[in-house]
Amino acid sequence: MSHQKKNSLVRGLKGAIHNPNVSEEAKQRDLQRLQEMGEDITGLTGASSDFDAQDEGRSADPHIFLKLDQHEDAMKQVTKQMLEQGEEDMQRSASAASADLDIDMNGHSKTRVLAGYKATLSNPRTSKAAKAHAEQVLEEYA
């Protein structure tokens, strides 16, 4: 194993040992692996136990959980209001866009639909019946 790869592996193992989201089993396995690689583990063995001892020494403020719940409720309320406001804005934008584009009830732009009928008249591969229908539609909107 190259020196650079070994250093990267050692850093990863040490990081895992200090990570509170890593299980104790994995931390012990990583310590053993570091020891097998000849690394000094004297300062690493108590990393997780020191953290636990610090937490046990503190007394939690019983009101902090109430404060957290209130904060969470306030955040939910603000998020709900933002979503509702966003929905209203989107509906307003959609109605303004449909007015600008002259969109019919099926969601089609009348201008584009009429352009399609006009194109039908000049297409040599279109049947006579389709051309007659296109003429009729264009006359209604003329």
Automatic annotation (TrEMBL):
<dbReference type="InterPro" id="IPR052670">
    <property type="entry name" value="UPF0654_domain"/>
</dbReference>
<dbReference type="InterPro" id="IPR018824">
    <property type="entry name" value="Conidiation-specific_6"/>
</dbReference>
<dbReference type="GO" id="GO:0005737">
    <property type="term" value="C:cytoplasm"/>
</dbReference>
<protein>
    <recommendedName>
        <fullName>Conidiation-specific protein 6</fullName>
    </recommendedName>
</protein>
<dbReference type="Pfam" id="PF10346">
    <property type="entry name" value="Con-6"/>
</dbReference>
<feature type="region of interest" description="Disordered">
    <location>
        <begin position="1"/>
        <end position="29"/>
    </location>
</feature>
